[in-house]
Amino acid sequence: MPVRSPPTANEVDMATRATITGLKKMSLDCCLVGSVACSAYGMSRTPADVDMLVLTTPTSYTGSSPSEAELQRTQEVLKNKLIELDSRFYTVASKDPYATYRVLWFRIPSPTSTSSLTSSSYAAYSSLYSLRSRDRSCKVDLLLPGVMNIPFVPKESIYRTPSTTRSSSANLDPLPLMPFLPLLLLKLQAWQDHGESPKSWMREKQPIDVRDITQLLEIAVTKYCPKPSSSGSKHSEAEGQGSRLKTTLLEKESTWLPDSFIRAGKTRVKKFVGSYPSTKAQWKMIGFDVDRDRSDVPVRAPAPPLVSRSVPLASTVTPTTRLASGSRSAAVGSRRRTQVDGMVKMESLMRSLEL
């Protein structure tokens, strides 16, 4: 679907709210992930599309994990249902000729000012669009827990914030967001995936990921990390440090996040710090131990075993063939003595190392 220009923040917000409304009509909870959620938390970059996590029943409750094909079928059903509920949604074939899924888009209404609209008039306006609006659309990705390692988010853990893209006079419902820490770790996963991709257009996304992550780290330190105690006494300082250790962002969110998700995040954090050491202090404030641990230290190969002292060294070397020629026998004997001498020297060297 050709797009003349990227959607504006207001247009992305319009597509976001239409998606939320459609999912609510299906009695499905959801939360934003990706750049729209990052923008709602304070990231400056304008998102280009909508990534919505549909909160289906977590697989741990059903007793079995759905296959990739089952997840894809569920996603296609949700897309078709959205189209039935709202004609502004439509799908097109994927650019990948081998893909079996279709890409969901939201038609952007014809340009007009929306800053002064009330909630009701904005809803009425957003349902109207001209045929020319088919030239402009916003892509919408419906994601499920388990897709791209996205964790299930309990309903009570969803963070809700009002939109900042329009005038505050519009009484709009708050946006449901994935909690900050898993959102940051998913952005870190995207950074690694883009960098390791064999496709050049994917690798070109990594600098954008770096800018997003560094800005999100600044937001985390400013908004979500406890401030040091103002008291100057050692006792108060120790108490403050203990309090900070118990209330890091990582510890708060790790109560419901899967262990495998946290472990993968810790590995990626160390890799990111290795490439961008200036972010080390920020990751530590969030709760990640980015210092080298014993698992990072290379293990020395064990020394070769000493020859048993209970057996004479000469007896450890025996000829494999008998030679009829006297000169050949002499040569073998000479080589045998050389081998024995070498073993004696090795044993002597190993003893000196032990001392």
From TrEMBL:
InterPro entries reported for this sequence: NT_sf
Region (Disordered): 226-245
Superkingdom of the organism of origin: Eukaryota
Name this polypeptide is given: Uncharacterized protein
Organism encoding this protein: Tetrapyrgos nigripes
